[in-house]
Each structure stands twice: as C-alpha cells, then as structure tokens.
Amino acid sequence: MALSKISRTEGSRRILEDHHIDEDVGFALPHPLVELPDAYSPWVLVARNLPVLIENGQLREEVEKLPTLSTDGLRGHRLQRLAHLALGYITMAYVWNRGDDDVRKVLPRNIAVPYCELSEKLGLPPILSYADCVLANWKKKDPNGPMTYENMDILFSFPGGDCDKGFFLVSLLVEIAASPAIKAIPTVSSAVERQDLKALEKALHDIATSLEKAKEIFKRMRDFVDPDTFFHVLRIYLSGWKCSSKLPEGLLYEGVWDTPKMFSGGSAGQSSIFQSLDVLLGIKHEAGKESPAEFLQEMREYMPPAHRNFLFSLESAPPVREFVISRHNEDLTKAYNECVNGLVSVRKFHLAIVDTYIMKPSKKKPTDGDKSEEPSNVESRGTGGTNPMTFLRSVKDTTEKALLSWP
C-alpha cells in the first residue's frame, strides 16, 4: 500500500513537471532571470526607461536606433522569456506611445525580426501576453523573503506609476494562491480512475479551499490599482491589435510578414488556471461563432505550449462530473459543488473588478489630460478584444449551471 501511494505521488509530480507547472508558483515562471547578457543591453536600456522616454517624446526615436540583435545568444527558457518580456514591453510602447491617436502601424524590423524569432522558439505570439507581463514579470526584493506583495516587484514598467506593479503582481499572487488547485488535478484524475471516493472528495475540497484563498488575494487589487490610472493609462498599453478601431488591419511586423497580423492583448482568459478547472469539472461554455468557448479556445494560443498541452491532456482524462453524478453520493456531490461555487465566486468578483476598472471609468466625461478612447469604443472591448461584461457574465452563468442538485 505504501509503495502504491509513493507511486501515485511521484506520478502526479511528474505530470506537473512535464507540463512546466511548478510546485510553489503553479503556472508562473519560477525564479525568473532579471538580467540579459551584456550584448542585449540596448534592449534593456530602452525597456527599463519606457516611462521617461515616452514622457520626453524620445521613445520611438530610441527604438528605431536599436541595433538588430541576433537571438542566438539567448539560450535557455528563462533567458528567452526575459528577452521576450523586454521586447513585448518595447513593442507595446512603440505602437501606442503616449496613448493618443498617434499609433504606429508598422513595427520596425530591428525589433520585429528578433521578437518574432523568439516568439517562434517559445511558442508564444509576438505581443505582450499574460504569460509575459504576469507569469514572467516578477522578482523578490529579498531573495530569502516571502512571496508577498511587499517583498516583490516587477521587472519592467509602463507609465502610470505603480499601477502596473499592482495589477501584474496581484494577478501573479492570485495564480500562486490557486496553484494548489492545479497540483490537486492529477490526484483528482487518479481518484476517478481508481474510484476512490474519499480521495476524490478530499482533492475537490483542496481545490475549493485554494479558490477561496485566490479570491481573497484578488480583492487586494483595489488596494494597489487606481481605476482611473488603469483605465486611462495602463489599459492602453495592454491593448492588442485584434478588433482594434485604431489598428483595424492589425500590425505589420517589418521583415517578417508581408501583411499585417492581428493579435489580442493580454487577458485573464490567457491564464491556464481557470481554463484547467473548467475542463476538469466539465464546465462547457457557450459555443458558436464569437462565443465565450471560441474566445477561450483562441486564448490557449497565448499560453506557453506546455500549459496548452496540459489542457489538452485534461480533455482526455476521466470525466469527473459524470463520475460524481454516477456515484449518487451526498458528500462527493457537495465537494464537487464546493469547487464550482468557488469558481462562481471568483468570476462574480471578476465582474465587479471589470465594472470598477473599465465600465465606470469609461462613463466619466474625459478631461483634457485623459488619453483614452471614446467611451463607446472602450465599453465594447477589453484588452483581449471581447466585450468584457458580456463575456464574463456568460462564463459566470454557465459555471453556475454546472452545479449539481441533491438529492
């Protein structure tokens, strides 16, 4: 018996390792590097001074003067992720600059070529995504200290003071708080295969507990992120060039493609955590053209390939929902519903956050200093290209419908 327990534990650990899921930080990149080799100092110099360069009107000139650097010297996953993050910041700043109507439709080849080369190596799109600005954009101030907001910082910044630090780090800490839920997934699948009701019940309870902790961390967004600054400044730099009124044809990556390409900006839909739990619990979102299911499927292309593959593997795992229904067991049904309710609770709070940070600021009369789009454009699209309230309401409602009745 002891040997089989060890075997299952090792099997679960191997599943997580194979899909680049860390024991401590889940889908986040563990121990991100903070320095690129000296040869890439021109990129770092621009990426670390974006707010000042934008304020002084020097950003685009400095980007256009950058040498075209080979990516051959960037060996290893962490080094490539850091370079991808830096080029992502530079790209967003170059395209949007001061956040007004002066938008660039062409990314110069000295940035476009290495950025697209790195993107291909990593299996990520050439735009700043959630995998970049949240999962790989952090460090500890004291390396021996705790993983807390107070002991952490981001690697690069946009204009807007500490707004992006608050937004990215709270999002990261939500990921970390929810990581025990992801670690429990192999245990859930194993318990279903073995028809071990007690092990399944405990694993589902662990997932629900993790989601409750993640929601508590999520609430701290309001402590660190000012709604007006997010809406009028940071949101602009996170916007992509798909469904964009200012880049209706997309962005041309000079020296890489002959026609413009469309990519969505960073979105919580690119987080692997909640998509993983949807698949695990058998929650199926509304399908069809331009539906939540289609959008979430598209967002998988913005995830690191190993995380994308984890989702694919879950889809062929034993169906948890059907197993719970077939057992007619009150405690097991309650444990399953506890997980679903945990997801519903997080999604309800996400709706409240979108209302605070997008909908309410969009309805305020712009002042001369605002750099936002017209309210009608802003209300209909989030940084990922969707109508955020419509999308999140649909996702929340579908999750609620997954609750099982008892008896």
TrEMBL record:
List ligand-binding residues for heme b. H350
Q: Keywords of this protein's UniProt record, alphabetized?
A: Cytoplasm, Dioxygenase, Heme, Immunity, Iron, Metal-binding, Oxidoreductase, Tryptophan catabolism
GO biological process terms, alphabetically, are: 'de novo' NAD+ biosynthetic process from L-tryptophan; inflammatory response; kynurenic acid biosynthetic process; L-tryptophan catabolic process to kynurenine; multicellular organismal response to stress; negative regulation of activated T cell proliferation; negative regulation of interleukin-10 production; negative regulation of T cell apoptotic process
**Where do the record's region annotations for Disordered lie?**
362-407
Might you give the EC number(s) for this enzyme? 1.13.11.52
Q: Which Pfam families match?
A: IDO
- According to its UniProt record, this protein's enzyme class is oxidoreductase
Q: What is this enzyme's catalytic activity, as reactions?
A: L-tryptophan + O2 = N-formyl-L-kynurenine; D-tryptophan + O2 = N-formyl-D-kynurenine
Instruction: Indicate the transmembrane segments per the record.
Output: none
Per UniProt, subcellular location reads as:
Cytoplasm, Cytosol
One GO MF term, please? Answer: metal ion binding
* Compositional bias ranges of the Basic and acidic residues kind: 365-374
What GO cellular component is one of the record's annotations? cytosol
Q: Which InterPro entries match?
A: Indolamine_dOase, Trp/Indoleamine_2_3_dOase-like
- Similarity comment: family membership: Belongs to the indoleamine 2,3-dioxygenase family.
Q: How does it assemble?
A: Monomer.
Which function does this protein serve? Catalyzes the first and rate limiting step of the catabolism of tryptophan along the kynurenine pathway. Involved in immune regulation.
Which PANTHER family does this one have?
INDOLEAMINE 2,3-DIOXYGENASE, INDOLEAMINE 2,3-DIOXYGENASE 1
User: What is this protein identified as?
Assistant: Indoleamine 2,3-dioxygenase 1
Q: Which organism is it from?
A: Mus spicilegus
